[in-house]
Design a protein that fits this description.
155 residues, Arc Repressor Mutant, subunit A
Length: 155
């Protein structure tokens, strides 16, 4: 019993992780991979759907009939649009307030929150500006300093 519960936990987390990465889940393939029935996979998908509802995540699980897979789709309420991310990135770059490594890391993380099918497009728009970004002369990280300063102001 414990072994099957561990397998179930792994199976459900594995599916959820792949769904969060934008991958689709095919019930038949998933059942074959984990050596269980399709009804078991359907129950797992229902548990994932329940978790999404209870956790109030900004997405929902839906079946895409054309592809014959289940996918997570964003409801878009709390997600930045590609235009908003691009504007934020452009403002950050123009500010020249951070080290190149810090700026690059922040830009990559901002791009990662955009829908998967738009990430490459935004990345290509910003690639040249990111490459031409001139590092600060003093070569000191400001992120921690900004954080500490703000904390001290709150006291």
């Amino acid at each position: 019993m414990v072994d099957s519960q561990q397998n179930k936990g792994y199976r459900v987390i594995s599916m959820f992780d792949r769904l969060m990465d934008g991958q689709g889940i095919n019930k038949k393939q998933e059942a074959f991979t984990h050596n269980v029935g399709e009804k078991t996979i359907q129950r797992d998908l229902n548990e994932i759907r329940d978790y999404i509802d209870k956790a109030k995540l900004d997405c929902h699980l839906e079946y895409v009939r054309v592809e014959k897979v289940y996918r997570l789709t964003n409801t878009g309420k709390n997600i930045l649009s590609k235009e908003q991310v691009l504007a934020i990135v452009k403002i950050l770059i123009e500010s020249r307030a951070l080290l190149k490594s810090e700026m690059s890391d922040i830009i990559d993380k901002l791009i990662s929150i955009v829908a998967a099918d738009k990430q490459e497009f935004i990345h290509n728009i910003i690639l040249n500006e990111k490459h031409l970004y001139v590092d600060l002369n003093h070569k000191k990280s400001l992120l921690h300093l900004i954080w500490v300063t703000k904390l001290l102001q709150q006291m």
